[in-house]
Amino acid sequence: MKPNLFLIGAQKCGTTSISNLLNLNDQIFFIGGDVYEPEYFYTENNGGKKYKNIDEYLSIFPQADKNLKYIGEKSVIYLQSRCALNNIKSF
């Protein structure tokens, strides 16, 4: 599945708490654990290199649960980026 919800904030401003609360809803899923902040859409300064391509990035999201209305990710670096928001919009 493709992410359709992006939580963009600053460090230490509560994005983890917000994503944890949103995860309590059975129609929302935020990735976490080893893929805590994928930073895929941050592409300046050699950023966004955790995943080689879009298929690898999309593989971190659940594929089977069709009951999910929102698939989310959070990366605080997006707020500091000059291109991340445009990259997300194009996506």
List its traits.
91 residues, alpha/beta, 12% strand, globular
Overall description:
The protein has 91 residues and is an alpha/beta fold. 26% of the residues lie in helices and 12% in strands. The protein is built from four helices and three strands; from the N terminus they run E-H-E-H-E-H-H. It has a three-stranded parallel sheet, with helices on one face. The longest helix is centred in the N-terminal third of the chain and has 8 residues, at 15-22. It is globular.
Gist of the model:
The chain is α/β, with parallel strands linked by helices and 91 residues long. Helices cover 26% and strands 12% of the residues.
Q: What's the number of helices?
A: 4
- Report the count of strand segments: 3
**Any idea what the shape is?**
globular
Major sheet description: 3 strands, parallel
**Unreliable segments (pLDDT under 50, ≥5 consecutive)?**
none
- Give the oligomer, counting copies of the same chain as homo and different chains as hetero: single chain
The proportion of residues forming helix, as a percent range, comes to: 25-40%
Strand order of the largest sheet: 1-3-2
Q: Could you spell the SSE succession in H and E letters?
A: EHEHEHH
Using only C-alpha atoms, the radius of gyration works out to 13 Å
How far is the first residue's CA from the last residue's CA?
13 Å
Q: Overall mean pLDDT score?
A: 88
Approximate strand percentage: 5-15%
